[in-house]
């Protein structure tokens, strides 16, 4: 599949600009631009075992269906790479208990955490560290949803369509008349699926944060986030739009939990009390 697995993870150190200290950085793994699909995995397995790729793909695809059927049947599925657990959320009234379940009130989903093989591979992989160079254009640090309670406290959670989302970074204010200015979400699973948020739909538009309602088209799953702006230093617009993409895909939906972990990064709550989700979204 023309991909080389080096077992090397590149870490990028970003300046934690929103903390009081001036010498602290947070780390984030830099992901490869391409996603490894099930077809890619089948091709690699076929090469290693000298087998027919289509046959391997059919077997792997059926295995994925069996795992999905099992979790949807209330089983915990444990494989060498992942532990999958069925979960549910929502609130119902006492009068609802004698009625058919309203799926608009109850959300059923699954959480994933690392299995033993993946844990061993991640602990044994090589690591290299880079310092993010001085910013000359927009720097998109993170994406998270926030809810403010009546007492003023703020809780963070994974982004969900129809709810406010907050993007943080540096020089990310949307400005300029170019048609490309805005925020673009691209589905990892289906790269041709894109959702664009124009400048006028952003309710809070500041150099260090953007807040807006996540469109309904950004459904549960992994999405790449890209901003485009002509905002420049000193409040003057630049002629050529500047673009920056979040290094890691953003997880949308209940399966991607986001903890309160300060300016650094953290992993989500898988419900198992161990590793949690593999997607981390540190606030800038």
TrEMBL record:
Family annotation (Pfam families): DUF4469
UniProt cross-references to InterPro entries, sorted A to Z: DUF4469 (IPR027824)
Domain DUF4469, chain residue ranges per copy: 160-242
Annotated stretches, region: Disordered: 250-284
Protein name: DUF4469 domain-containing protein
Source organism per UniProt: Bacteroides uniformis
